Amino acid sequence: MNATRKLPSIQGSVVADRIYRATILFFALCVPLLLLLIFVEIGRAGWPALRQFGGAFLTSSRWDPVQGEFGAAPAILGTLLTSIIALLIATPLALGGAIFLSEFCPAWLRQPLSFLIDLLAAVPSVVFGLWGVFVLVPLLRGTVMPFLRDTLHLGVTPFFTGPAYGPSVLAASLILAIMVLPYIAAVSREVLMAVPRSQREAALALGATRWETITGAVVPYARTGIFGGIILGLGRALGETMAVTMVIGNRHELSASLFAPGYTMASLIANEFSEATSDLHLSALMAVGFVLFVITLLVNAVARLLVRRVGEVRA
Amino acid sequence: MTELVTLREVEGAPMPSASGPCAMRTIGLDAYFGSVHAVRSVSLDMPSNEVTAIIGPSGCGKSTLLRTLNRMHETVPTARVSGQVLFHGQDIYADEVNPITLRRHVGMVFQRPTPFPTMSIRDNVAAGLRVQAGDKPRRAEVDAIVERALREAALWDEVKDRLNASATGISGGQQQRLCIARALATAPHVLLLDEPTASLDPASTQKVEELVYELRRTMTVVIVTHNMQQAARVSDRTVFMLAGELVETAPTRVMFTTPSDPRTEAYITGRFG
Amino acid sequence: MSAGAIDASGAVGQPRRPTRSRPVALARRRGVSILMVTLTCLAAAVAVVPLVVILVYLLKQGASALSLSFFTSMPKPVGEAGGGMANAIIGTLILIGIASAVGLPVGIGAGLYLAERRGTRLANLVRFLADVLNGLPSIVMGIFAWQFLVRPVGHFSALAGGAAIGAMMIPLVTRTTEEMVRTVPQSLREAALALGYPRWRTSLQIVLRTALGGIVTGVLVAVARVAGETAPLLFTALGNQFWSTKISQPIAALPLQIFTYAISPYEEQHAQAWAGALVLITLVLVISIVARVVTRARLGGGHD
């Protein structure tokens, strides 16, 4: 019967599959190409300022568009300062919340509570900024700053002195703390939930209390991942723009007092970019963007490597 | 079955040629996964309009051998093949051969049912038709082909009233017969079955076996099975493999009554594997 | 856990406590434990507070300025109450459209590549860089888009703004596509190939279609994220007080309008900013919640 059937041709071209493979390869290569393009374009645009001022661009505090002098030290330090304060505030809360969610939370509450915290990450930056301008800043000015300075007598330290303007490094740090909290909490929760049951049971069986189980067995096991989550939060804080721009007060000086206004790299760019009239001013802002890009790139790379290592151990 | 068998030679392996024309033939075929040598220098004839069963213990390379016949083997990373596979005399590993076109003529059914979850029962059966070369068949033609394929797979009566329902809503046994119908719809010359009843209940298994027995009238079937009774029931020729090598090939009745290789005898009588 | 058990803290690497004071120590350890568990519970509660507070303020401040005309009228001149953000709402939708046209093909294509070439060195590198790109500050994307798309052309445009936020969608869409394509069983891919499907049809018609629900969810999350982005639009889309739907011209956007009004000195504009923020966050939260519900229904809820 087969003899009556025409023998099939099995020849043919595989061009369509080659095109498909080339297409998805091209799209995949877009990711590294985009990063490279950003690096080159911003680096090129910032090069005149970096060349003119050299190391002083990073260390000088003089930022004077009129005289054509540009030193970004206050913005760089302001970025680091606000981010670190934000992490100091957010980490205990995020970690505590993550521990509660992964270890002690009743099962019915876990999903909704995690979701609410995750949802905080979805709130647009400009909405945080709006809330910061009209709620947080007046609250700081009218209540929190006088309380810290006068009632708690923290005014004797250099950190809580000066007039309570409202827009300040403190306000920016608080907003940032709220904004990075969900990132740290989400990563910590994931890595804590990935700790094998046996780790907990072993410690409990040996007579450890619930808290000792956490500090002695669970957290050490998840340490790398949690650290990665914190670094990830740091990356977010360093580059956060709108909310910070709206509450930090935008001043080219770095004071020891958290009550004083300041600048971050991102808010400096957001604030001055459209007003930059001279080529050098524009280039200086591009150079600030380049520094910010390189710093966040490194921070994110480290964070991803740490979190990835945990993922691999898990898999 | 006995009539067919008496027409065949009864010599042991390796048989250079069966008496009839061969739809599929391998010559000195080796297959690898990375450094693992899964199929070792296998030369095997699969005569047209016969059912060839490949048996052997787990990991003997029988599924890998089957997957070299429609070039599915090479879809796994690090997999390699050397030697020849002839489909009606044409080397399927020749440069000008498109594996996609080849697979339209050499159908395959897997161990577990694999209905496409986004498609209805009808669309699943017609899935292969949509990628056929040439003009697209008209709706009425497609419906006729779908009905024929489902009837051949003994599934028509069970699903004819819900052809537009999701293919994942039917039982596992029905899903496997659906996959067979899908493979039959394109009227392949050769059908490869990789342990098609491994995940089925006895009733479904019986239906599939009856189907395989019928299929030899229109096509050549190669079936991998770890179930020797199944090989004995459905096949004309049986091939025994061990550790990647072809140990013996013979007409099924001969194989199961008077195997020529002591290793075959040991396996068939249940002494290992 | 009995008091006679081996001291657990010793077993897990902390200094062993003196044996003699064990009963007192045990009571103290239990007390510490209860206190700390309570504190973590408190931390979780505090972590939820900001969201609740912000939502309450948005509702309180925004609802009063919100009316049907907010969606249908143009902004009023400075000093006049009322008016709306019709142009900004349309502008945001147009920007999302441009962003999707840029971000979706690249993101889905790259995600398919990562899933299909899993384990190769290039795939690992691209995945890592996609994660790094995900953390790129939005202001950096903004000045890059200005330098690359606005400066050479000589004027601001919706196209440049859409492209900037589209680029921000890429890493999110890439990773979701990869994850979702990975959930499609390999056997399904094999079944299609064995049926004579070319690879490209296997990938697009069988695998991608099977994973489509999950990918749509990921796309929604990405859209929700970029819908609220402001910084990349500052020097690209720029904003526009007038009605414009031309993609080669500056265009209004909801987040930009909120920003402009929030830092303005006028009470009327502050009210509009709150109303705009309420609309924006409703948009973002509804998308996020829908995406979440869809994902949970699909994956049957729960964690791995």
Short description:
With 315 residues, chain A is mostly helical.
Structure in words:
The complex is a heterotrimer of chains A (315), B (273) and C (304). By secondary structure, chain A is an all-alpha fold. Helix content of chain A is 73%, strand content 1%. A two-stranded antiparallel ribbon of chain A has the order 1-2. In chain A, a hairpin with a 4-residue loop joins strand 1 and strand 2. Chain B has a single domain (2-113, 188-268), classed as 3-Layer(aba) Sandwich (Rossmann fold), CATH 3.40.50.300. In chain B, 33% of the residues lie in helices and 25% in strands. Chain B has helices at residues 2-6, 62-68, 99-105, 121-126, 139-152, 156-159, 172-185, 202-215, 228-234, 252-257, 262-268, and strands at 22-33, 36-47, 51-55, 79-87, 90-91, 106-109, 190-194, 220-224, 237-242, 245-251. In chain B, the strands form two sheets. A six-stranded mixed β-sheet of chain B has the order 6-7-8-3-9-10, with helices on both faces. Chain B has a four-stranded antiparallel β-sheet with strand order 2-1-4-5, with helices on one face. Chain B starts with a helix and ends in a 5-residue tail after the last helix. Residues 1-18 of chain B have low confidence and may be disordered. Chain C is built from twelve helices and no strands. Residues 1-18 and 300-304 of chain C have low confidence and may be disordered. In chain C, 71% of the residues lie in helices and 0% in strands. Chains A and C meet through helix 1, helix 3, helix 4, helix 5 and helix 6 of A and helix 1, helix 2, helix 4, helix 5 and helix 6 of C.
List keywords for this structure.
heterotrimer; A: 315 residues; mainly alpha; MetI-like fold; two-stranded antiparallel ribbon; 11 helices; 2 strands; 1% strand; B: 273 residues; alpha/beta; Rossmann fold
